[in-house]
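Quick one:
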Amino acid sequence: MSPKTGFAGWYAKVAAFNVEDIFTRKREPGPKRSVFVNQNLPEEYRDHKGRVKSDHVYVTNQVITSKYTIITFLPRNLLEQFRRVANMFFLAIAILQFFNKFSTISPGLVIFPLLIVLTITALKDAYEDVKRHQSDRRVNHTPVRILSGGDWTNPNAMSKKSRTFVRGLLPKVRNMGKSNRSKQDQDPDGEASLGEPDPNIDYDDIVDGGDGQHHVFQHGQDHSRPHWKKTIWEDIRVGDIVKIMNNEPFPADIMICATSEEENVAFVETKNLDGETNLKSRNAVSALTHLRTAADCVNKSNTFRIDCDRPDVNMYKLNAAVRFGKDTVPVDMQMTLLRGTVLRNTSWVIGVVMYTGVDTRIVMNSGGTPSKRSKVERQMNPQVFLNLVLLGLMAVACAIVDSTLEKRDYPAGAPWLYNDNQKNDNPSINGLVTWAFALITFQNIVPISLYISIEFVRTCQAAFIYFDKDIFYDKTGQATLARSWNLSDDLGQIEYIFSDKTGTLTQNSMVFRQCSIGGQVYGDNGDGDTRMSNDVEEVVPIASTEKPNSDLRSSDDSSTAAGSQALHRVPDPLGAKTVKLSDQVLMHFKDEKLKMDINNAVNADPESENAAHARSLNGFFSVLSLCHTVLTAAALVQAAADMGYVFRGRDREILRLQTPFSEELEQYELLNILEFTSARKRMSVVLRKLDGEDGRLFLLSKGADNVIFERLRAGNTELKEVTEKHLDEFASNGLRTLTLAYKVIQEDEYRQWSERYHDATIALDDRDTKIEAVSDELEQDLRLLGATAIEDRLQDGVPETIADLKRAGIKIWVATGDKLETAIGNYRHSTNLIGRDSNIIVLRGGNHHGRPVYQQMIHAVEEFFPESGIIGEDGNVVEEPPASSSNGHGEERPYPLRRVDTGVSSIVGQNNGDRPGGFVLVVDGVALTHALADERHKSLLLRLATLCEGVICCRVSPLQKALVVRLAADVGVGISGEEGLQAVNSSDYAIGQFRFLKKLLLVHGHWSYARNGNMILNFFYKNIVCIGVLWWFQIYDAWSSNYVFEYTYLLFWNSFWTLCPVIAIGLFDRIIDSDILMELPELYSYGRTGRWFGIKWFIIYMLDGIYQSAIIFFLIFFAYMTPASRTDGYQIGTYEFSSTMVFAAVLCTNLFNGLNTNVWTGWVFFSVFIGIILVWIYTAIYSLISPGWIVTPIYGNYRFLFGSAYFWLGLPLTVCLALAPRYLAKAWKFGFAPDDIDIMRWVRKMEPHRNVSHEAQIGGRLATLHRPASVVSRRTSHTGSLVSVNGRPSMDPRSASRTDMSTGVRSVHRGFDFSMEENGVAMRRMQSNLSERRQSSRNLASPQLPKRRRDTLSNVLSIPRGLLGRRPTTPKGQD
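Output:
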């Protein structure tokens, strides 16, 4: 769009001004760096004075998210407040009255109200920022262990720390490191503290105490020994060697040297980065794994340098290298621990700090704290500006007319113009003086009390949200907290919701619901109650004759299946007697029929009909137990353990499994892992059974049904058809599915394949493609075992909330770090975001053989939305017309974001009416990078996205999430306790559960927006009435800018007389009851479309005020000007009739405010009439005060005022005539043109017990609320999450179709369950160990084994024949 010019362009620049641009300079990332360890800096790093050059001075690790410091608070806060046009005006008026010529009352008293407003706002801002400082201090003062002693020095140079707002508090924490150093300085020999352990110093070595017992070296004896000293995060320097213990967060971006695990692997939780709680694996730099103690790190022989790239925002890429002697070892992100992540399941990690503070990835991906203003406040500025223009015109009119009259009357000898020809007293000068006086007289046209009233009302609205029990999370005791008090009305105007998946929609917990084994379905339909996490199942312990290897502690815990995050929960996996729930699994898998079938299988005769199903059961659960990695498939392994197949741990490549079919522990040798990738959609393991008769080889596979089915051996079509039917039923219920299969591998076949696989793994070119091709060779001719159905448990009420938000017309965008396939599988069915009959448009990037991203978007529009008007007849993109729209930061958007109807017909168009569902756009991170690259891509992406029911952005970095949100987001809402602290701390509102978002928006947001908009309009109106009366008086006062009211009446106008009714509107008004807003989300469109506030309503209220001021002034003025206004014949005084005008104006404005209030409560009655009562009491008392006490111009006025018939007759007449137009207009609208709000209010009034949840279907105007039946129907969930759909879904090939715009491939996607770290180091280290073990002996042939049995299903995983006839032990008492 073309840029604005002239006045519009000037105003746009002023409106887009950001205060933070002045105080927060955008810092460019630093240069490439070299971190030196155990060696001095090179000479070229220093200047001629010996100081380290600035390019090699690194930023401190101190991170500050607060806005102010003690120095910048006053100027920055004042600039923020004076962005309000009204505040600038009030300041100018106050300064003007400091000059004697324009002084009305004491100048100090004039500026006092402005100072009150500025002070209260500043105190509120200071309180909010002090909370941010306290949060910063808690982070910056977190303790951490760094290397010290043994002549260790860190040569790398650091900049100084910043001084902050609350610096100096809690000196004990702040001076932790300094106090240690001071102790050493005072007592270098340690004699004074001999025998007293120093809690801030740890030693690695353990010495013999002489009494036969081992003791940690006494802390106070010799601090010169290498040790780990506790300091605080903000004191960490680049090049420091740190030691992080289990469950501790990482203070900076750190390169791993060594870990407590034998294979130098560490497991980290990245919840604070991406919201995901599943663990990621990281490994140490191979050349530095010997640095396992403080003494090793201090040893001068361990000298090395780390060459790093400049700090980057990319969370998934790092290019660095360690130069150790003559060797150079590459370092990537798999060897790096990022700030904000947490160490889990690993005793300790030793690493070197590479990046600190604002150079760390997490900080570079987060923006500064913006100075947010609500949309209503941004809309107020032009309205205030219009009022100022009106004020200027009024002042100019007074000046011109006054000067003209003086020029006309002075020659005629007017006595009041005596000597009116002086240099400082003549018509021209007096006209200018009158102009200034007019500004002072009519200054209340912009009420100074408006802003402080808004702040007060919003604070109370934040309290209403906080104390609402409906959005209080009992489980954590978390109330909904408003962290930014000035955005409550924005909650009522939300058009788009940008959500992060993990922790926001889901509980990060899995439930094994159902399974299909050998053509039979087992498991409940989700009606079972969730067990507590400490529920246990008893199992038969297996006596172990060997001592478990230490490696078992880093492998899967037998009693917790897989994925446990508790370190060393079961020291001896072989001796565990119970099966506990894994941390990521909510409940045990229970099915009596399945247990009975397993018991029958144990006792089945090998030649009976049940023998085949018995082997299927054994094979199915064996695959669940053995086909997994350290961190994956927790729910699957848990379900197998619940059925008696307990994974008893892994000792290097030896896997141990306990089954109901064997009295002894079964052992398998892990030979290969064919890992999962988003392209393969499956994983497999190759195992050798060690305790069998023939040591057979097995391939166990699990994956998406389509990739498994196409690799099955020919035959047994009946089982395939039945299993596929079961898969359809599982998918229709919103469950994530996996298909299980196996095959027995011939020894010769494996030998030849293993050679090819080894060659592929060491290939330098196109390694991944070669590995995938060789893996695919082995994964053929599989035998089908069955399928699993897992519920990715959503938070309670998520599907219903999303459905209702979509009914409210809110578009939902989701940004997640998940892989594209995983995201589609997660969101399909269960969340109502992707329906079972939805069509998915996929935009992919990074495919050099596919279409460019821009062409993909154009093809999507052409194919699915040909009538949208985005693509012209010439095939080019039609530019959108210019539109004014601004985001939450006050910046103008170059393109509008608009809502489109999400019904079927409006989404897909009439020509595509045969499609069963709407569209959901799925964009991967690479494509999103291109789509956000420039305005052309960005505009087309947004226009395409607005045609879809939802948008899912996959594999995106935190920075990309921020860029997407910045497009249109005004308000940030974090889910406390589920997402990472980073999301909650940077949010404007913190809620306990996603479902609370519904009431927060539909009720509190809608109410707040309607209340604040109505309050502001009534505020402007009531001041126009007052100023209008003053203005009409100028006609009869020679345009001299004099007051018609006694000044105190004007002084108290915006405080005592008319303030309470508008405050009552802001606090207690309700457009409609909350239960109706919850049951009819369509009513939210009134807020979303800006119905309650805007320039149209502003003009209407202004015209109403002008009309009422004219009625009040002229009716009363002409009544009092009649000859018989007094019985004594004397002429009336000005304050006699003007006091009547004051009473009439107060009555009109307060009753008018009451007329605009939808619900009259006791507080509203009090607020409307308190001002009326106060003005009566004040007038009666003020007119009794004698001038001997104070200067009063209306002493005795009560005699003439209350004794006049004009007063008693004028008040009701003026009030009725003034309010008649608004009253008649409201009555006509309610009777003849009611909107949906009016109808529902009438229904609630006349039939209070009527069920309004079906009102959108009762016909008439209200029927327009009910949008066309959506392709995503509302569903109920088990405990609020599991979707239940009656009947089988249509298997139309168009149903749930997915079109990849990069390749043009269209497919039907059922979704599958794979919670796995793709290309993770957990996989890679297993593969490396397996390869290294076999590489030492290139003879891949197996030992000579007895001739194996037939390759038939009857031999699956070697069920011992003897056990097929073994009967279960009969419990005592049941003989």
